[in-house]
Design brief:
By secondary structure, the protein is an alpha/beta fold. The protein has 10 helices and 12 strands.
C-alpha cells in the first residue's frame, strides 16, 4: 500500500533532516507523527518515528542538567499543563504573561515586540500551570516552527485586542495561518478528525477591557464566537478578571488533582497527583509506579459525593480533590 505522505508531513521531515539540535529533531518528529496518514502502508514508518522520539526522550533525560543549546521554539513541559498564548500584534500577550507569572518579556505599545517564545509558571491554588508567550501571528507574519509547539500544547489562549476595531479580522487571520499548518482551534472536538489536523482546545480572551468602547467590542465578539469558544474579557494592565481567567485556564486543561495518603497518616495536600478527567483509581496507581499498580487491591477515598473512607476498586473514577488511601 502506498504511503501517500502529506505535504505537511514532508515539510516536517525536511525540518528533521535539517535540524541541528535534539529539541529541534524532537519537534519535527512529533509533527511527522501527527501528520502522517494512519493506515497499514505507514505502520513501519510510524513505528520508526515513535522509536526515534522515544530515543530522543531517553537521551534528553540522561543529559538533564547538562548545558546544551535548545531550539528557539521548544519548551519542555512543566507543571499541571502547558498553555500557549497566541494572538495578533499588540494584543498584550507579553503583558498577560507578566501579569499571571513571574516571567517578564519585553513589552511595548508597538507590534512584533516578542521575537521568541518565553515560558512562565502561573500559580493556581496549590499547583503551577505553564504559560508560553509567542511571537505575534498576522496575515503577513507567522513563524512556521511554532506549529510544533502549538500541536504539543495542552491548551491555547487566543488573545484579541478589544481596543482594536479590526479585532474579528485579526482573530480570523490567526485562525487562517494555523489552518495552513493543519491546526484548528476549537472549544471541544467531537466527530471524526480530518487526517493530518490537530484540534486544540482554546479559550478566547478579550484583552484591554478597560479601553474605550471595549464593552461594545466584546459584545460583538461574543455574538460571533459564542458557542465556538469559551470567552472572557480581561485587562492584563489593571488585573481585571485575572482570577476568573486562572480558573478558566485550569478548566481548559481538563485535569483533576488527587491527593494520596498512607493509612493512619494525614494526606499531603501540597503535592497532588495530576490526572486527566475521567481517570480511574488504576490510573492514579500507575502514575505512582507500575509495580505498585500491579499489587493494588483496593483503596479508600475521601471526597465530594462520597462517604468518608469509601472503598473503591481499580476501575472506579476519581474526582478533583479526592484523597486516596491505597491498599496493596
Amino acid at each position: 500500500m502506498p504511503a501517500n505522505l502529506t505535504p505537511q508531513y514532508l515539510k516536517a521531515e525536511e525540518r528533521y533532516k535539517q535540524a541541528k539540535t535534539d529539541p529541534e529533531k524532537l519537534l519535527a518528529l512529533e509533527e511527522m507523527l501527527a501528520t502522517i496518514p494512519k493506515h497499514k502502508g505507514t505502520e513501519k514508518l510510524q513505528a520508526d518515528i515513535k522509536h526515534r522520539i522515544s530515543r530522543l526522550h531517553k537521551e534528553a533525560l540522561q543529559k538533564k542538567g547538562v548545558h546544551h543549546r535548545e531550539s528557539d521554539f521548544y519548551v519542555e513541559k512543566e507543571g499541571a499543563g502547558q498553555v500557549v498564548i497566541l494572538g495578533p500584534p499588540n494584543a498584550g500577550k507579553s503583558q498577560l504573561l507578566a501579569a499571571l507569572t513571574s516571567a517578564h518579556a519585553e513589552a511595548a505599545p508597538y507590534p512584533y515586540t516578542t521575537q521568541k517564545i518565553l515560558p512562565g509558571m502561573m500559580p493556581f491554588e496549590n499547583i503551577q500551570i505553564q504559560l508560553v508567550d509567542t511571537p505575534a501571528i498576522s496575515a503577513e507574519f507567522f513563524e512556521a516552527e511554532l506549529s510544533s509547539l502549538i500541536r504539543n500544547a495542552d491548551g491555547i489562549l487566543l488573545l484579541c485586542d478589544l481596543s482594536n476595531q479590526n479585532r474579528s479580522e485579526q482573530i480570523e487571520e490567526v485562525r487562517s495561518q494555523l489552518e495552513k499548518v493543519h491546526i484548528r482551534l476549537v472549544r471541544v472536538f467531537t466527530g471524526t478528525p480530518e487526517e493530518g489536523f490537530a484540534y486544540k482546545k482554546t479559550l478566547l480572551v478579550g484583552n484591554k477591557f478597560d479601553s474605550e468602547n471595549a464593552k461594545t467590542n466584546f459584545d460583538r465578539i461574543e455574538q460571533i464566537y459564542n458557542g465556538r469558544f469559551p470567552l472572557i474579557p480581561i485587562s492584563a494592565a489593571r488585573g481585571q478578571n485575572l482570577e476568573i481567567l486562572k480558573q478558566k485556564i485550569f478548566d481548559l486543561l481538563e485535569v483533576i488533582r488527587v491527593y494520596t495518603k498512607v493509612p493512619g497518616e494525614e494526606a499531603d495536600l501540597a503535592d497532588p497527583v495530576i490526572l486527566k478527567k475521567e481517570s480511574k483509581l488504576l490510573d492514579a496507581a500507575l502514575h505512582i509506579h507500575k509495580d505498585f499498580a500491579q499489587k493494588l487491591k483496593y483503596a479508600r477515598v475521601w471526597g465530594k459525593g462520597k462517604y468518608q473512607g469509601q472503598m473503591i476498586g481499580k476501575e472506579d473514577k476519581l474526582n478533583d480533590g479526592d484523597i486516596v488511601e491505597f491498599h496493596a
